[in-house]
Amino acid sequence: MRARPPVITGVRILLCLLSSLGPAASAAAADFRRGPDLAAARSSHAAALLQDGRVLVAGGSAAAAAWTTELYDPVQHRWQSGPALGQAEAAATLTTLQTGKVLLVGQGRQLFDPLTSTWSAPAAAVTPHRRHTATVLATGQVLVAGGEGRFGGETDALEWYDPVNDSATYWGRLNQARSSHAAVRLNSGKVLFAGGRGSGATLASVEVFDPQLNYTELGPGSLLAARSGFSLTLLPGGKVLAAGGNDGMANLASAEIYDPASGTWQWAGGMSVPRSGHAATLLPDGRVLVSGGETAPGTAAATAEIYDPASGGWSSAGSLAVVRAGHAAVLLPSGSVMLAGGTGSAAAATSSEWFDPAVPLARFDSLLQSLRTGAVATWLPPGKVLFGGGGMNNDYNTFADVFDTATSGWSGINLVAGRTRHTQTLLGNGKVLLAGGLYFGTPTAHSELVSGQTSSSTAAAPMLTARAAHTASLLADGSVLAVGGYGSDGAAIAAAERYRPGLNSWTACAALNTPRADHTATLLDDGRVLVSGGRDAAGQVLDSAELYDPATDLWTTVAATGAARQRATATLLRSGAVLVTGGSDGADLPLARVDLFDPRTSTWRRGADLALPRVLHSATLLPSGQVLVAGGRSGPGGGLREVEIYSPEFDRWTPAPLLTVLRAGHSALLLPSGDVLIAFGYGNNWVPLLERYDPGLAPDPARQPRLYSADLLAGSHGTLRATGSGLRPAATADSGSGAGAASNLPLLQLQRIDNGQMRFIAADAALPFSDSLFAGRPRDFANFPAGPLLVRAWVNGIPGAALQTTQASVPAATAPPQAGGGVRRATVTFVPPNDDGGAPISGYRVSAVPGAALRTCLAPCSTVDFEDLSPGTYTFTVSAVNLAGAAAPSAPSNSVVAQARATVTLGSGENPGAYGSPVTFTASVAGEAPGGTVTFRADGTVLCADVALAAAIATCSTDALAGGLHAIVASYAGDAGNTAAESATLYQQIDTAASQAALSSSANPSRYGDSVVLTATITARWLDGHVDFHDGATPLCLQVALSSGIARCSVNDFVVGTHAITARYGGDGDTGASVSFALAQQVLALPTTTSVATPCGRAFSANQPFTLQATITATPLGGTPAGQVDFVADSGATLCTAVPLVGGAANCTTTALAAPAGQGQGVVAIRARYSGDAINAGGSSPDLTVTVLDPADVLLRSGLEAAVPGCPAR
């Protein structure tokens, strides 16, 4: 094994080139080839290219053709009867609309729907037309102009048909009524009308219709020669070529050019012969093919010629296969021109023929980075080509060369292992699988995956069987089928196996009926695989074939080709047939034999032989549907430069320009540009050159449509969405008469990279369609297999460069998910699959089993929650989803239980209950058939533990609750299908036994300082506990223990007053609390004696100072009395008020004493009133009487007697 070899330089290159280059060769001249015949003879008919690549012809002048239509199928290369017209038509026009339908304008209006293959009547016609023109405007509307009316005579009517609204509107008039004229839409969007016949004369007048202004004006200028029955062609530069026609007297050979920029007409070079009623077709290279026509009335031309705008001259295009005029010419998507029908010869009306203008060219591209043989070329996204494996002299390269198609630059990738005679398969995920092959001469089972995104290679799962010279086919589901090859013992094997990218695993498939190696394998349109030829286990070259059906995993032997061969090439044609070319026989002699397999009948037929026998050659399916066979060897050694191109429609091989060097055992790959990349191999020496072979399909790059993006979508409308430019150019490829309508609408072509399978996609009429936007019709994708493919646009027979995209298959299955249960819910976790099927995963579907619960999430996601599941046991499967749909469900997850959310309802048999009497608590559990146990608790303490449920009910009976209020809770432990749960708290009242408290006093009333014994007597069933004695709110004795129902409290410090005494029994858990009625305990103050005296005489005149003295005498316990004394007279007069006691006495001196009213003198009784104090009772003294004299009756004698202080004078 070796790493990357050095680049070959200098003398070695020169030696290789000198020894490899052979004589130059030129391309074969283009010619006309007879095609399949029409069913009806047709002239004055119309033709149109449909968006699916078929050709519709309708009507004609012959009665047998006027009501009929035919459809050319390019896949089968044959004409098929179409639906009958609603009325006979001749000299009508067919116009392909952007909706995909075809408008026929003639004596009536009819609309053809290719999807249903039916005709319908569109909006009512405004004016009948024949020999008119129908021009598609930039808006997609159709402008119908002039022609002959129903009863003859030219018309000047302009009619506007709107395909979106299916409405026809009269739009005005031409300035000149005309028929047999020509019209072309200019690059500006205006429509040029020229020539024709009007008022019995041939016209030279010209007029231009401006859709923006809705106005038609004469000029500019006029034709240099009056013409009718001529052709008018818009050239690539925007100028217009008018050629041939009849001037009213003779047919014309002249041509002229109109320049819209200057508004002038100038003569162009003339044709070699006069022509009228000919067809003009703008070829892909920008030249104009003029075919047939009449050189003189009644004499048809047998020739064709080509106008070159670059030189302004004409050149011969050879002779027609059938002499014809008044025929239809349609430029096909392949770039070929089809001529059909016409007059001029017996065969013209029913025949068709083809002209292929392509001019292939081989050109040097670059030097290879290494020399090797046995390398395999594979498209490597994005935009690169991988050359993997191979080597020289059993020295195998572990370095893969990578070629950048955009820059022609080289880079490399280190492979995990070297190999040759292996397979390389581009997978839907964009990686390339290298499998098996020879490793130092021994078959290997090693596989690896190359990523163009990371420019790296990683080991993949090894094959189940070591093999080399086997085949690998990418199946419709994205898996790879490896078949046969040479096994470890060097003999051919029958084993087959399948690689699944999502699982990175190989699984065994049914074995071949015959072991074989060096055979061919081709994926057919229907998904089966055709295997043919090769060598068997005994080394014999095989003449046998088998079909593998992936759906049934069965091999079926089919008919043999009739020739044993090995190392041939097999190419899937657009028709679905398989073209097997060359190879070598049992004597290792190269073969020129060609065979074709028809999958519909499982039969073979001989094809046209190659010009040269070949083996170790390459066969490449071109976008045109042709097959390019290049190189190989024709003898025991060396190589070939010769190239041949096979046209399936004609079963014909055409020589093409030579390769730049001799090659055999080389690699060839179709590039998005349409070129074929050819590299490596061996001629007379190792080949160090890379070359591009241009099939000549797009010779005018300026007119190529361009795609900027191409995305394959799933479902609804627009399975293919493409953006680009030049998808609806102004120019069409027809002659301006409307009889042979080449469409400027694009055809989007899909070509699968693995097997070359092709399909044209028409525009979706329900979605926008413009010069830069295309949406494909979903039905056109039906049964097209998944896998990497090329998308290219064909417009006016010119293919654009293709974009690589992927027709996705569904993603691989995910690994079994992990699930976790919960309350009526589950959480499912999964990981993305290893293979997205070729399109990004958009989301996941997760299904619950049993039941139909489904949850989805948008990628990226890895977890899905199921809510509100019915309780039970579940498993879950996951399917990844991409644009192609949902993958197969994963294996089931682990089993989980979605529990019911249990609830517990707690009830009491008696609430309140009585102390000592049983109370029964009942817990009812609601859930999904709940089982298990319930535990009852009171105030947190277990009452009944683990009581088993019976019919979802558990009970607990107890008489152990103390009196009072208790918090009762029932706790359900749960089971497999139900959650644990706890009831709401139930508050249970237990009433204690009734009690009655009575209270008595030993002395009531009592005196201050007396000892009073309070006795509480409790009457109850059970006696225990304590009694509290209170004086109002003030405790007297607390927690006095009952003894035989009695508790006593002795109090000797009652204050004087009345006390509300209560006895409060707190109960004892058995007996309820009780409170006695309040006892009014009276406590009396100590007795006192109050006396009053005076030091003064007891007779005196009124209002003289008079002194009184009160004395309070208390018991010994009362101590020295305190308080106050009021002195009052019996008259009610207060003499002194609130005189405080001092030492038990209080004095009062007053002048308020007076004789009783109305008396000169009188006796006044005076007493002292003691207020009492906290412990001594108040009282009143006995009366003290005094005589009060009227001052007028008293004679005062000064000094008669001595005065007593505080006393009146005597």
What does this protein look like?
By secondary structure, this protein is mainly beta. The chain folds into seven domains: 32-355, 6 Propeller (Neuraminidase); 361-694, Kelch-type beta propeller (Neuraminidase), CATH 2.120.10; 702-730 and 745-807, Immunoglobulins (Immunoglobulin-like, Sandwich); 818-897, Immunoglobulin-like; 903-991, Immunoglobulins (Immunoglobulin-like); 995-1084, Immunoglobulins (Immunoglobulin-like, Sandwich), CATH 2.60.40; 1088-1193, Immunoglobulin-like. 1% of the residues lie in helices and 44% in strands. It has two helices and 108 strands. The strands form 27 sheets. Strands 74, 75, 76, 77, 78, 79, 80 and 81 form an eight-stranded mixed beta sheet that branches. Strands 83, 85, 86, 88, 89 and 90 form a six-stranded mixed beta sheet that branches. Strands 92, 94, 95, 97, 98 and 99 form a six-stranded mixed beta sheet that branches. A hairpin with a 5-residue loop joins strand 30 (328-331) and strand 31.
Structural class assignment: mainly beta
Helix content: under 10%
Instruction: Give the rounded overall mean pLDDT.
Output: 89
- The beta-strand count equals 108
Name the CATH superfamily classification of the largest domain. Answer: Kelch-type beta propeller
Rg computed from alpha carbons, rounded to a whole number of angstroms: 61 Å
CA distance, first residue to last residue: 165 Å
Number of contiguous helices? 2
Looking at the overall shape, the CATH architecture of the largest domain is: 6 Propeller
Main sheet specs: 8 strands, mixed
Poorly predicted parts: 1-28, 1197-1202
Total tally of structural domains: 7
Percent strand? 35-45%
